[in-house]
Amino acid sequence: MGNRYPAKVLLFGEHTVLRGGRGLAVPYGRLSLRWEESKPDETLLRFGDYLKKEFSQELLDTNSLEDHLLEDWRLTGNIPVGYGLGSSGAVCAAIFDRFATDKGRQLSGNELRHQLARMENYFHGDSSGTDPLICYLQQPMLLGQGVAPQAVQLPEDYGDYFFLVDTGRTRKASTLIRKFTEAYDGRPEFAAMVDNVWKPKADTAIDALLNNDRKALLKAFAEISEFQIKHLRTFIPKPIRKQWSGSNYRLKICGAGGGGMLLGMANRPNARISGLGTVYWLREGVVAGQ
């Protein structure tokens, strides 16, 4: 039980992937969960009871899961809850990786995502299965447009340009998604801007990153950042608004917004980012307190 199950970071596609756009998400190994022998975890035991009712032994050995949990195995790690980093997805990935049957391990594509979504429904009510899929496969994934998530290869140094900023506050994604949906459905002019401005810029950024076009990526990221500070201001915590852009970086929301982590992009590798507190570069293991 020594494997680690990473957090997930959505680089592009926040909100727009729910409106027909594409998204791009990556595993982030600096934050992860792992199995550890310790005192019983009542929350995990309740999840195990749910899985025993919802899943047949054909795909998931829930009897073995129950035995291990009662023998004081639990998941421990440093993925914060309420930050949009896939904490519940990592839990599902860890359980499926350890307790899936041979038939369960043969699943792939949309069927694998469907079963992981069924597991994560316990936490969110209606999961897409994307977060646990990324945590399970531990690969960057291209999302959206009605097709199965696709594993993609990113430039080796992409993590030297992207970083996370901790806002210091948790948030509930469903609340922010509902708020965005109400604005999108109730204000035609806002919906038009999302469809005709934000969504194309997100697609441009994804293509630029996949093609390692740094200039186009920086431009698209800056335009997304500007769109969000102008049109999604209430999704950005007040203390950070004055620091939304600097001489060598831009920020944008990471996931639903409202708190959790923000995603930043620097204009050169591992730039010195001032005034944002501790930043976490996506290059695994690099933390810079400034």
UniProtKB/TrEMBL annotation:
EC numbers, comma separated: 2.7.1.36
Keywords (A to Z) from UniProt: ATP-binding, Cytoplasm, Kinase, Lipid biosynthesis, Lipid metabolism, Magnesium, Nucleotide-binding, Transferase
Pathway connected to this protein: Isoprenoid biosynthesis; isopentenyl diphosphate biosynthesis via mevalonate pathway; isopentenyl diphosphate from (R)-mevalonate: step 1/3
Any Pfam family hit: GHMP_kinases_N
Compartments it resides in: Cytoplasm
Superkingdom field: Bacteria
An example molecular function term from Gene Ontology annotations: mevalonate kinase activity
Cytoplasm found in the keyword field: yes
Major subcellular location class: cytoplasm
Signal sequence bounds: none
Ranges of residues in domain GHMP kinase N-terminal: 72-137
Assigned protein family: Belongs to the GHMP kinase family. Mevalonate kinase subfamily.
Protein name according to UniProt: mevalonate kinase
Organism expressing this protein natively: Neolewinella antarctica
